[in-house]
């Protein structure tokens, strides 16, 4: 699935953050700083935050294993 990076998408950042949190948890991954960005609500941003290198590797591996 391809997305146009310049086209705004209507999505609630709080719902998106919780959906991502649940999906990551199912893969055994926790991003401690994952949250909706409340500083710019009109942009619908989700903050992923900083993670340890081993968590970043776990996330990369989980994305590689995803079904196509």
Question: Residue share in helices?
Answer: 25-40%
- Give the averaged pLDDT, no decimals: 87
Main sheet: strand order? 1-2
**Given the structure, what is the number of helices?**
2
Proportion of strand residues? 5-15%
Largest sheet composition: 2 strands, antiparallel
Approximate shape: globular
Q: What is the tally of beta strands?
A: 2
Structural class: mainly alpha
Distance between the termini: 9 Å
Poorly predicted parts: none
As a whole number of angstroms, the C-alpha radius of gyration is 13 Å
Order of helices and strands: HEEH
SSE inventory with pairings:
Blueprint: H1 13-26, E1 35-36, E2 46-47, H2 53-65
Antiparallel strand pairs: 1-2
Can you put this structure into words, describing what you see?
This protein has 68 residues and is mainly alpha-helical. Helices cover 40% and strands 6% of the residues. It contains two helices and two strands, in the order αββα. Strands 1-2 form a two-stranded antiparallel sheet. The longest helix is centred in the N-terminal third of the chain and has 14 residues, at 13-26. The model has no long low-confidence stretch (mean pLDDT 87).
